[in-house]
Amino acid sequence: MALSPGELAVARHLLIHGPSTRGDLGDRLNLSYASTSRAARALIEGGMASEALVPESVVGRPRQVLTAVPGARHVVGCKLTADTAYGVVCDMFGTVRSTARAALPAPAADGAVPVEGTAKVIAQLTTRLGRRVPTVDGIGVALGGIIRNRSMVREGTFLGWRDIDLATPLGERTGLPVTITNDVTALAREQLWFGAGRTHSTFGLITVGAGLGFGVVREGVAVEELIDNGHLLAHTPVDTRGPQCRIGHTGCAAAYLNRDDIEHHASVAAGRAVTFGELIRARAAGDPTAAHWLDGAARALGHLVATFAGALQTSCVVLAGEDVATLAGTPAMNDVIADRLRPGRDETQRCALDIITTPLTFNDWARGAAVVGIQNALGAT
Ligand SMILES: [Zn+2]
Predict the structure, then answer these.
(1) How far is the CA of 298 from the centre of ligand 1 (A)?
(2) How many other CB atoms are there within 10 angstroms of residue 151's CB atom?
(3) Neighbouring residues of the ion ligand 1, judged by CB less than 5 Å
């Protein structure tokens, strides 16, 4: 059952910042003592929180400390790629209790992965994962593309989907509330509660992997649907002498940074097929050509970080995704950012950027979906 606004505020604070006294909660959340106590009582009665006396010091009075109960809710999170469903089941703190994966049905003649078959696979994963926890309270599904109203897949990038309702068949099969989210938005919402959002109310998220993804959190709220699906940032000009992206820009960030584009350019230059993984290994072995492509990608990423931070007016940018560890924090990226931050002679305003790097596996993406499911189960927007 969804919580009242006061209960949600208290539960959210306990989940994000840990145990707290009623007095501290009231101060932090700007709630009266009566409201805080009412919310605390309701959460305790609902099994969502517990309260215990904690001795403060030798002489002080013991304090009543409220703590969220991690196992009060469990949610299955599922990340869909073109051919696989990666599943996790998480408790209220977003801690992964178990993982499982299953193949998606093969695409039909029209290139689209069958929707009913996909719902069946996710429902079966939910049953498997549900055996590892007392109950499952909801399902969060994340996929690349454009999602409307947390249920309609307007554009499913890797699944060949257009205007597909996945939430209804999955809800009918499982009897559980279902939330469908863009995968990068899901990560942004996960970071809002359990990552960068703990210290920054506004931050940007860039994912680097099979594609470039962007997530935005403004003043404590995750932007559910970007106006351009990240297009404007992805195609930011970097160097007018650079390689071409797939839509014909010369030297945009995507041309340097998309894994497909890097592999395409490196393959054309080498006269044979070259993969991103090969470039990483070749650079480690001292190959200057591989270093050229990867440094170009890292510089483009540095420009994206600087541009995103400036446009969003945040000092915090989170870098995530399968390929980010190869590029983030390299001298090529750091030099670009330092240069972009370097003030002019008469400029007095200085800023520093807090760049957080979190390499991700598919299970981490699934965890993002689960956290959205937890937020949905608690009634958080
Ligand atoms: Zn472009």
Answers:
(1) 16
(2) 18
(3) 235, 245, 249, 252, 254
**At 232, which CATH number?**
3.30.420.40
Q: Report the domain count for the chain.
A: 3
Judged against a pLDDT cut of 70, whether residue 59 lies above it is answered with no
The better pLDDT of the pair 50, 53 is held by 50
Region 149-171 average pLDDT? 94
Distance 221 CA to ligand 1 centre (A): 29
- Please tell me whether residues 186 and 167 are part of one structural domain: yes
What is the Å distance from ligand 1's center to 240 Cα? 11
Same domain, residue pair 137 and 246: no
| Residue among 1, 130, 6 at smallest CA distance from 74 | 130
Question: Taking all residues of the chain, what is their mean pLDDT, rounded to a whole number?
Answer: 94
> What angle (nearest 5°) sits at the alpha carbon of residue 359, between those of residues 372 and 86?
50
Distance from Cα 117 to the centre of ligand 1, integer Å: 35
Give pLDDT, residue 1: 61
CA–centroid distance, residue 292 to ligand 1 (Å): 19
What separation in Å is there between the alpha carbon of 325 and the centre of ligand 1? 23
Find out whether 316 and 202 touch, Cβ atoms under 8 Å: yes
Q: How confident is the model at residue 380 (pLDDT cuts 50, 70, 90)?
A: confident
- The residue segments making up the domain with residue 50 are 5-68
Q: Is the pTM of this model over 0.85?
A: yes
Q: Is the sign of the CA dihedral 150, 178, 47, 16 positive or negative? A: negative
% of the chain surpassing 90 pLDDT: 86
Please tell me whether residues 220 and 354 are part of one structural domain. yes
Check: CB of residue 83 under 8 Å from CB of residue 103: yes
What's the pLDDT at 54? 81
Q: What is the CATH number of the domain that holds 64?
A: 1.10.10.10
CA 261 to ligand 1 center in whole angstroms: 10
